[in-house]
Specification:
Structural class: mainly beta
Number of strands: 35
Strand content: 25-35%
Radius of gyration: 26 Å
Distance between the termini: 99 Å
Largest sheet: 20 strands, parallel
Shape: globular
């Protein structure tokens, strides 16, 4: 009896210990995930900040945020600034602070900032990092609001995802920081009143920083150009899988799609691949607008791989003074001044296609490849490029295809069946 009782007690004790361990794990997981708060135009700051009883102001929601927490903003138009400097907020490694528009709803920020040098809709400069910003629209209200978004002064480890930045009388996004990721954003219609040097405004002005990532964005109709990576120091910047088109509407700007340029500072190990550059300089007033420009004696080791560069107003790819630039597997076709011009040092040029690549429908900016395209299987095998613009694996055939798209058999123009045939 005693032995049986002891065995039963051991089973009970074991079950209790297991239950306690599970509870501790759940509590630990809950704590790691952090708290979630909500803000809505119909809220009240006296509310607890839940989904059904949200806060009214950003200020109230931000005041409670700790590393690992999330602030959801419900749909609507807001003219309040998101201020993360007062009170001082920052995430920590492994515990980002997330600020996001509520899934499926449109959150538009129109903070009334009339000064070009001010903070704009999100005030987060200084030594703070580990933030995720997602599903927001930053609207400059057709140039009435001058300050875009500046990530600078010690900022680090920001992730911007599914953000729309538009209509600012300044560059849409200014980056002077390390470990910044800009993913799947739409950045368009920044404009300049004068178009003069100092007032050439870009979709993204990447001033300096290390370990940057610009991926999967649609960057268009910005007055000065798409992306300016200048003057440095810049290292380990990756620009991939973006659409960069119809930029540069100012007569004085020599920048179309992208410029990578060091001026007094080192710009090294920048990788530009799987991008679409097209129609930059489409305005009659625009300056010479190359698709991609690699410039400056301090610019070293830029990798330009598997891009499609089509019908830009200047050269397709222009290299001037830059050292050890690698240009491989690019389609460069029908650019106004020519396809590739190289005045660099130790440039490596190979497996680029400058004749008709047989796009599927170039008039609709569909740059996939027809069957029998000369770009298919004609590229160098690049182990660094394992996917194409659509995230389809490379290579599918004998070798990499040239350009941003890998032909996979689904992109081919079908042959129409004959009509009105009669059997004799």
């Amino acid at each position: 009896m005693m032995s049986h009782s002891w065995k039963f007690s051991r089973h009970v004790l074991f079950s209790l210990l297991v239950s306690c361990c599970v509870l501790l794990v759940l509590l630990r997981t809950s704590t790691a995930e952090g708290a979630t708060y909500y803000v809505a135009t119909t809220g009240n700051d006296a509310n607890p900040g839940t989904l059904n009883q949200p806060f009214k102001s950003f200020n109230k929601g931000v005041s409670l945020l700790q590393p690992g927490d999330t602030l959801y903003i419900r749909g609507g138009l807001y003219t309040e600034q998101i201020d993360l400097q007062r009170p001082n907020k920052s995430g920590t490694a492994g515990k980002n602070i997330a600020i996001a528009g509520y899934p499926g709803e449109t959150v538009t920020l129109q903070y009334a900032d009339l000064s070009e040098s001010s903070y704009g809709p999100i005030k987060a400069r200084g030594n703070r990092g580990y933030f995720v910003f997602e599903n927001l629209v930053l609207d400059g209200k057709y140039g009435a609001l001058k300050s875009g978004w500046s990530i600078r002064d010690g900022n680090h480890h920001f992730i911007l995802r599914n953000i729309e930045i538009k209509n600012f009388l300044v560059s849409g996004l200014y980056i002077s920081a390390n470990d910044i990721q800009v993913i799947n954003c739409t950045i368009h219609d920044q404009f300049s009143e004068t178009g003069l040097p100092g007032h050439r405004y870009y979709g993204i002005y990447f001033h300096d920083g290390t370990n940057g990532l610009i991926e999967g964005n649609d960057i268009y109709n910005n007055s000065g150009g798409g992306i300016q990576a200048y003057p440095g120091p810049i290292s380990n910047l990756v620009i991939r899988n973006n659409k960069i088109h119809d930029n540069n509407t100012t007569i004085h700007s020599p920048i179309g799609g992208i410029i990578v340029s060091g001026s007094g500072y080192a710009v090294s190990n920048v990788s530009v691949y799987n991008n679409l550059f097209y129609n930059n300089g489409s305005s009659p007033l625009s300056g010479s607008s190359p698709g991609l420009r690699i410039d400056g004696a301090n610019t070293t080791g830029t990798k330009v791989w598997n891009n499609t560069v089509y019908r830009n107003k200047g050269y397709g790819i222009s290299i001037n003074q830059a050292r050890k630039t690698v240009v491989q597997n690019n389609i460069v076709f029908e650019n106004a001044k020519g396809e590739i011009v190289d005045f660099g040092t130790e440039t490596m040029l190979s497996h680029n296609l400058t004749t008709d690549p047989r796009f599927l429908r170039s008039e609709g900016a569909d740059f996939r490849l027809q069957n029998r395209s000369p770009a298919i299987d004609a590229g160098a095998h690049l182990s660094q490029i394992s996917i194409d613009f659509r995230n389809i694996p490379r290579p599918i055939g004998r070798s990499h295809d040239i350009g941003a798209y890998e032909a996979d058999g689904s992109d081919f123009i079908s042959v129409k069946a004959p009509q009105n045939l009669k059997i004799q």
